[in-house]
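Notes from hallway chat w/ T.B., transcribed later so I don't forget. T.B. wanted the structure written out for a chain they're using in a teaching module, and asked if we could keep both sequence and structure tokens in one place. Agreed to drop them here.
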Amino acid sequence: MNSAILAIIKREYLQRVRSRWFVAATLAGPVLFVGIAVLPILTTGSSEPGEIMVLDGTGELLSVVGPALEGAGYSVTTGDGEPSLEDWIQRIHDGEVFGVLQLDSATLANGDARLTVASSLSPIRTLALRQIVAQGTLASRLAAEAPETLALLGGGTLEVDVLDEEMEVDGADFLMAYLGAFLLYITLLFYAVAVMRSVLEEKTSRIVEIILSSVRPIELMLGKIVGVGAVGLTQLGVWAASVVILADIGLPRLVAARPELAPLAQFESFAPGADKLLLFLAFFFGGYFLYSSLYAAVGAMANSDQEAQQAQAPLVVLMVVPAVILPAVLESPESALAVWTSVVPFFAPVLMFARAVTGAASGLEVGVALMGIAATTVIVAWIGGRIYRVGILMTGKRPGVRELWRWVRAG
């Protein structure tokens, strides 16, 4: 790689990482992650569930409702004798207890109960408490009338025997496939469009005429593609590091404040391994160079943002198709639709990655997809480079198909 291309890469990279939009967009990721972690705590109104007084007028629901409340993080107490409700309300005002839960004959009949608290509850906490009372009441009635059906409250279990063990998809792999494929779709579209806008900006400002006096058009195009791609990797790296740090520091505190979110503590079991990260990078690089070459050509042939938006419509369709059929591919990764669409070079970065992560795609299929992306990228870069070489200095009416073909031949 010659010094001219390196200089362009450096300029494109530093110009973007120093811009306000890059800083704002990069920081938006960690802020979003923090919000996801903090929001469940804030929606409960307080970090600690607190003490709840249960007044059981039925004499039988406390034994089932009490343990469920304690499992949700509440401290359950009962009154001695028959204390008046006014006494408990005063204790709520004094901050001694979180609230008073009254269970009576109506609770046994249809699950109706009354909770008295100092301030309004969030919908999440209200729903959780209502569910505890309803399930406790149902459990009590089943235990008295049909104890053999009590186990049904747990939802039962479903053991799935997969004859072909290689085709068994783990829940963590499925989640990684879906989120990773969606992230690929978003980043490929975002950074490919960034290449187009960079080309269009220099073309409309006429700066490109000065730049091309020192470098060849193909060097300028390659430098822009690699420079913007480096910016994308930097941003993805910051986001990935933020997720790891927040998971290590924030998850323990979140689980301590919300015991019902304890399954989130198993974050490490869902974290992708090195093989999946390398697979992600391989498809990111392949898809990025493929689409950024196309978008660079679009930027070179357009004369305004409006023309660029119209010219990129076919490319947007190419990127939307895999996003639309992704759920169907994950549902049936061995179907003909999944197999054949995942080897199409324009769809493979998203679909083949999803199939590979779930284990549905063989190493041969992944290799064929990557080689197809590489071969298509070479062809697209050759055609796009010729369009770029001629179109970057052209102004006026946006070219049609015939004129583009003349540009390719002339380039």
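Follow-up for T.B.: Residues 3-30+169-410 form one domain. Might be a good example for the class.
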